[in-house]
Amino acid sequence: QVQLVESGGGLVQAGGSLRLSCAASGRTFSPYAMGWFRQAPGKEREFVSAISSSGGRTYYADSVKGRFTISRDNAKNTVYLQMNSLKPEDTAVYYCAAKQAKQAILVYRTTRDYDYWGQGTQVTVSS
Question: What are phi and psi of 79, to 5 degrees?
Fold first, then answer.
């Protein structure tokens, strides 16, 4: 079993930056692809970014491409989401997710792909 805990959310002004962290514990010796999703009030959870278990490949939703960067430090069992040039529409609860990887290079972009989820961290971007 894997437990995921997000942190780093908060309130920022439009144009500002935040870095989210997702710390994994438990069965972290297995290779896991990781993803970030977000959910705004009244909306469905949407894909934000993903990274392969090796860290060698990344993928971004069009809405955040060029502004957000996903990375991982496998030695620390931690995945990061650097968010720059934040917009009010980025306001949401951000969740990290883990999937046992079939191949180290693969990334996954749907909620159905993932096996484990964190509790979420709130990101609020003021106008």
Answer: -115, 145
